[in-house]
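Retro notes
What went well: the complex prediction finally ran end to end.
Inputs used:
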Amino acid sequence: MMRIPCICCGPRDENEFVCGGTTHIQRPALDASDATWGRYLFFRDNPKGVHLERWRHAQGCGRWFNLARSTVTHEVLAVYAMTERPPTELPSP
Amino acid sequence: MRYSAWSLLRGALSGHRHWEPAWADVTRRSNYDVIIVGGGGHGLAAAYYLAKNHGVANVAVLERGWIGGGNTGRNTTIVRSNYLFPESARLYDFSLKLYESLSQELNFNIMLSQRALVMLAHSRHDLDSMSRWANAMRMNGIAAELVTAAEVGAMAPALDLSANARLPVLGGFVQRRAGTARHDAVAWGYARAASALGVHIIQNCEVRGFILESGKVAGVDTSQGPIRADRVGIAAAGHSSVLAKLAGFRLPVTSYALQAMVSEPIKPILDTVVLSPGTGAYVSQSDKGEIVMGAMLDLFPSYAQRGSFAVKQAIIAAVLALFPSFSRLQLLRQWAGIVDVVHDSSPIIGPTPVPGLYINCGWGTGGFKAIPAGGWTLAHVLATGKSHALAEPFQLQRFIDGRLIDEAAASGIAH
């Protein structure tokens, strides 16, 4: 069981949360080509290692926030607000 | 050596000292016609069909761990072809047909048991969706029968059939040709048959990079040194994105942990496969007597081959709601495999942006049933450079063209 540090409520059990997938994806301009649009919608880095992702405290305060989390150890390396940029330096998992 | 009743009898008389290794321990060459990355079911099947169907036997299968040690050894062994769209129905039913003759084809008992799959309806809406599902299958030429609650009860009397059950059983549909097969035997059977045709199976050999020459694939860098080939196929399931990154492209794939578990072995109580789409739970009993169960993904990206406790609790709760008597069973083992989920829950079989590099991935939670077809179609594109007719709708390009084949409903597990 992961303990996810909600940006508002502090650490809670993972089953209070839903994961919203990769964060910081930039929406392309409306006149983007099919290839750009397809890549935006579907193609992901899916890293084995640190992943920057969105979570929502669905069974709690309802807040969306960002996590830097290792997809190998499941360790949470950083928590930051939706509109913030990711921290430039992360502890190694 | 051919396996037969005669070879068993001969062994009985000679102290069983005549058995040989099922596949050859080889000294690897520096050059092959084709390299397949991933020694699971799909990779081994592709190697076998390359040699058998296309006469391309100068093939190496590179496996990071041991063959069949990934998802091939971690699934719940269910085979079925109850999909909704014609493209998928063709592909998965071709796979099931190959499974039906695979023990004879490979001279290896894969213990296929066509014990039927029962999909349960727990509500009026489920009944409607089952009618639609069974009719879609029939339109695609695959036998399916709608069944009443009493008929479901006759097939699986251990289900909670009472009117006030948490998940009342109102009926469902049955695919009689579905069932289970011994998952390890599928990997071992293909490995043995491929090895007999000259394919090299190289274990403990991790691919760490691709050798590219003027933009084309020319081989792979491995933990055992470089190996060259101008055609390379990737069949690496949950690790597809890691390999794609090494080759310089991305995939529409997210990796999740899918867990499953077995109870202690008990006497026969369930001789069919039961699937409850409402909860995602699927349950069968192995030939050893263990109750095999699974239900849902850990819905966050993961490469850890375990599973989270929260999801395990939910799976067990779902299974016990269906089969209350199983609450007394002790859990024997629990594990997880890393599955490659794509947005339309359909596979990708074909070329990649790198010339000479082909991929078979995206099977998500349903790769085991598709092993023969996945291997057959990957072998076809590796040998001929052209996609097999069955694989044509399942190209990477569909995510750019928007021609998705959305089988989320038929995958049985919420993605």
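What we learned: The beta strands of chain A are 3-6, 10-13, 18-22, 50-56, 64-70, 76-80.
What to try next: split runs per interface for comparison.
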